[in-house]
Write a structure and sequence with these properties.
This protein is an alpha+beta fold. 32% of the residues lie in helices and 23% in strands. It contains 4 helices and 8 strands. A 5-stranded antiparallel sheet has the order 1-2-5-4-3, covered by helices on one side. Strands 6-7-8 form a 3-stranded mixed sheet, with helices on one face. The termini are far apart.
């Protein structure tokens, strides 16, 4: 089995492509070792000690190294864990048990029903134009709400903490949304 790696715009994050589906649907972001306890794979990667984030996309795993960690030292260990996991066809998540919950994909803001058409346009643009591009960089972007012209988005995976994320939000996503949805005045990360 060959696992390819790609750099991302975030120098702390590498994207690993195992050549097979990682998540059948959706994505999952692990920002702490405690969150990773629901996944044997994410937990094993965090147990390396030099990892600050793990993200599962459709066909990739993004791993974020801690400050000052050299990828030349960490990469072989991450590759070994991924190779063992996918070669053995191990489950991505532990069986559900009492107290287990998956973070909601619901918006953090309650959208005004009067804005339903605007929100539908925003979601469509994010899903068809923004998310595929962001996934190429090892991350994801999730709609979290719309209020008085402001769109609230959550950055995940390689995009969270990326030095160019502000530019992506303001120069890319905000301009796209403003162009197609004139009611949008600003885009903010949450």
């Amino acid at each position: 089995m060959l696992i390819e790696t790609e750099s991302t715009p975030n120098p702390s994050t590498l994207k690993f492509l195992p050549g097979r589906t990682v998540m059948d649907a959706g994505t999952r972001d692990f920002a702490t070792p405690e969150e990773a306890e629901t996944s044997p794979l994410a937990e094993a990667i965090f147990n390396l000690g030099d990892v600050t984030g793990v993200f599962f996309g459709r066909d990739f795993v993004s791993v974020t190294a801690g400050p000052g960690v050299a990828w030349s030292d960490l990469k072989p260990d991450v590759l070994a864990i991924l190779l063992d996991h996918f070669s053995a066809a191990m489950p991505l998540f532990k069986p559900a048990r009492a107290g287990f919950s998956v973070p909601s994909d619901e918006p953090t803001l309650s959208d005004d029903p009067a804005d339903a058409d605007i929100v539908a346009q925003i979601r469509e643009l994010i899903d068809t134009r923004v998310r595929p591009a962001v996934a190429n960089d090892g991350g994801d972007i999730v709609y979290r709400g719309f209020d008085k012209g402001k769109v609230f988005l959550q950055l995940q995976g390689a995009c969270a903490g990326c030095p160019s994320s502000s530019a992506t939000l303001k120069n890319g996503i905000e301009q796209l949304l403003k162009y197609y949805v004139p009611e949008v005045t600003e885009v903010r990360a949450v």
